[in-house]
Every structure is written in C-alpha cells, then in structure tokens.
Amino acid sequence: MHVLYAHIGLFERERVKQTDKLMAYIESKIPDDAPLILASDFKGWHRSVHNRLTSALGLSEVYEQQHRKLPKTYPAMLPCLAMDRIYYRGFRLIIADIKSGSAWNRVSDHCAIAAELQLPE
C-alpha cells in the first residue's frame, strides 16, 4: 500500500510542474496494481489536475465517487471551491464526507475530507 500527500502550489505553471513530477513518480515507483491513496490541497478548482490524475493514473476521488461531484472545501467558513481531494485505487470506498462547522473552522481555513477505504479481501 502506498500513501502520498502533496501540497500543490498556487500558480498554474507551478501546479503543472508539480503535477508532472508527482505523476512521473507514481508511474515509475508505484506498480499499477498496488493500492494507492493520494491526498492533497491541489488548488485545482478548474478540474485540469483532476482530469489528468483520473485519466492517466486510473485514480478515483472519494467524494466524487459517493456524491457525484468534487468536494467544496475552501474557504472553510463558506466552502465554494473544490481544492482538496483524496484519490485512491485498489480499495473499496465505504464512505466519504466533508468535515465542516465551527470546530473545524478553528483548525484550518479548509474543510477536511474524511474517507473510509477497505482493501479487497
């Protein structure tokens, strides 16, 4: 099982380079059949990073799989941008949820995404 976390930059050019490096790492170091979790603040509210990760690497996003839309996580006080994501492959999704509210707003300016995943038997 492989678990990766990244914090992608704010500017488009930076995001493209970082995503290229991240994808190259996954493609060269992690076997296609290995279970993988990739979580990040992708700053990709426009879906370009999302589309690349799902099509090129065969990843699924937890919240989108359960709710048919990407999770709006920023800003935590009034989430309107889908910036944070948890991608996976090689697992069965049990549940995905966004953690928000006053207690969570004190922890971060982003809402948290929580997911329960199960390895196949």
Q: Please, could you describe this protein's structure?
A:
The protein is an alpha+beta fold and 121 residues long. A four-stranded mixed beta sheet has the order 1-2-4-3. A two-stranded antiparallel ribbon has the order 5-6. The protein contains four helices and six strands. Strand 1 (2-7), helix 1 and strand 2 form a beta-alpha-beta unit. It has helices at 12-29, 48-57, 62-67, 102-105, and strands at residues 2-7, 36-41, 60-61, 84-89, 92-99, 112-118.
Strand order of the biggest β-sheet: 1-2-4-3
| N- to C-terminal distance | 14 Å
Largest sheet properties: 4 strands, mixed
The poorly predicted ranges are none
Gyration radius, rounded: 14 Å
Proportion of β residues? Answer: 25-35%
The residue fraction in helices comes out at: 25-40%
In sequence order, what are the helices and strands, one letter per element? EHEHEHEEHE
The backbone outline, from C-alpha atoms, is globular
Strand element count: 6
The overall pLDDT average reads 93
Number of helices: 4
* Content-based structural category: alpha+beta
